[in-house]
Amino acid sequence: MPSSRDPISRRAVLKTTALGSLALATGVQDVFGQAQTAPPNIVYIMADDLGYADVSCYGRPDLETPNIDRIAARGVRFLQGYANSAVCSATRTALITGRYQYRLRLGLEEPLGGNNRDVGLPPEHPTLPSLLKAHGYGTTLIGKWHLGFLPKFSPLKSGYDHFYGFRSGGIDYYRHTPGAGPTEDFWDEDMPLHQVGYTTTLFGDRAVAVVNDYAKSRTPFFLSLHFNAPHWPWESPGADGEAESERLRVQGRGIGGYDGGSQKTYREMIEAMDTQIGRVLKALDDNRLTNNTIVIFTSDNGGERFADTWPFSGHKTELLEGGLRIPSIISWPARLPQGKTNDQVSISMDWMPTLLAAASTSPHPDYPPDGINLLPVLTGAAPIQQRTLYWRYKANAQRAIRDGDMKFLKILDNTFLFNVVDDPLERANLKGRQPEMYERLANKWLEWNQTMVPEVDESSTSGITGAVQADHIGAGPATRKADNPGPPPAR
Predict the structure, then answer these.
(1) Is the Cα dihedral 243, 248, 249, 250 positive or negative?
(2) Which terminus of the chain has a lower count of CB atoms within 10 Å, N or C?
(3) Which of 285, 89, 279, 111 is nearest to 200 (CA)?
(4) 294 — phi, psi (to 5°)?
(5) Which helix (H) or strand (E) holds 268?
């Protein structure tokens, strides 16, 4: 990759709405024949650890993602999309419940560890798939679950009719093992499955079959396609990836580590995912479902060590913008504009109320969402809303709130105030220049935090140290103690 970038051209990529040529190339005109009055099908595609600018329609210059770009050409690209957390299982908790993950014990895990069998998504909690299922939808999860382990927790206990994938935080792309041993973490429904193949391709194969089956049954469907790409281990499709998988096996190692990977491998993993997404889009086209199918593409958190998070700093495990900002695209040709961008601040938990509204149903009244329905803004029926969003991350006592354009950030005992619209790199600390704003946001975060489940010492968390990543020079092991400050001072 180039060592420097032209800020004008990169910012132009982020801000442009000129996807017209791409729209023409991908055929976004209304040529698909499904009735617009039918309930929309929903295909929710989630990458794992993908950086904000890791697809070409968000500005990455050294790879091509024509199929993800096609979703953007047929729909709307959010320029201020956030993940609910800087790690995976916490964001997935918020996504499936439509609420801050910190309302559940599961949401305190950053991320959920493989040895923790007592914490997971309570089966009785209403979820996006369970509410859609109650409204007549078929529901299928393909890929990563990471919200609890059998026998207490399962996708099949939380609203999905079908499950094909893995339950842990990550698996080897070829051996399908989550750790150093031979035990595989690959499932068809709740039955262990041994299947040969590269996981990205296997998930694409199953997704195409699921779309075809639902099309034949004429059942409205919700398909969650949660790839593990481009999460480590750094294994591309083909001989090089197989050799890396074999190296890890012979050395008796797990799937993590800091001695593997390259930009080339990372690009190939993303491009392989894009290829499978293209197959799913073709299946929708072939079955004349595209016009009335909502397709969403996004990531569970900001990028990892090989990711492109420009124009932000920070990455996974950090509440800097690079750890939270994600690509976020929605298409629904029957209802939404095409080839547009949108500056609405959005977050993972917004998808639950948005998709329920699209399906003409509602959240459970006992579990009101913290997210918002984005459809009025997307259709132009309502103006962009000012948002206040909150985060916390136990490692290094990280705290953040975004209110309008301003962001309060705390890391250990260091505190900051940034205008993240004017200063997306978070370089100019404005707390001394705007002390009233700084104090207001800090106190607002404290007030919000009193309404969430307190942190606990035993929950999992992690951070990046200078010992394993050179650009974190001086960073020691992350603090892991719970930090539960009280309410703001009385005025």
Answers:
(1) positive
(2) C
(3) 279
(4) -80, 125
(5) helix 263-286
The residues that bridge with 294 in the sheet, in sequence order, are 42
Low-confidence ranges of the chain (pLDDT < 70): 1-36
Angle subtended at Cα 426 by Cα 398 and Cα 448, rounded to the nearest 5 degrees: 40
pLDDT at 17 (0 to 100): 33
Q: How far apart are CA 87 and CA 4, in angstroms?
A: 28
| Cα–Cα distance for residue pair 74/19, rounded to 1 Å | 9
Q: Where are the domains of the chain?
A: 17-385, 389-472
Q: What is the dihedral of CA 315, 318, 321, 322, to 10 degrees?
A: 0
Query: What top-level class would CATH report for the domain 17-385?
Result: alpha beta
CA dist list (Å): 223 to 45, 95, 232: 8, 14, 24
Contact 110, 85 (CB under 8 A): yes
List the strands of the sheet with 388-393, edge to edge.
388-393, 398-403, 406-411, 414-419
- The pLDDT, as a whole number, for residue 257 is 86
Length of the chain: 491
Q: What is the pLDDT of residue 490?
A: 84
Q: E strands along 94-247, which residues? A: 138-144, 162-166, 187-188, 191-192, 221-226
The terminus-to-terminus CA distance of the chain in angstroms comes to 52
Other residues' Cβ atoms within 10 Å of the Cβ of residue 366: 7
Residue with tokens 């420097």: 4
The pLDDT of residue 491: 76
Domain 389-472 classified CATH 3.30.70.330? no
Does the fold of domain 389-472 match that of domain 17-385?
Answer: no
Check residue 459 and give its pLDDT.
97
* Contact indicator for 221, 138 with CB cutoff of 8 Å: yes
Its sign, for the CA torsion 339, 322, 413, 453, is positive
DSSP state of 206: H
Distance CA 420, CA 422 (A): 6
| Cα distance between residue 148 and residue 176, in whole Å | 18
pTM: 0.93
Cα 288 from Cα 153, distance rounded (Å): 36
Pair 131, 114: CB distance under 8 Å = no
pLDDT of residue 353: 98
CA pair distance 90, 96, nearest whole angstrom: 10
Query: Dihedrals φ, ψ of 293, to 5°?
Result: -120, 125
- The SS3 of residue 328 is strand
Q: What is the per-residue pLDDT for 447?
A: 98
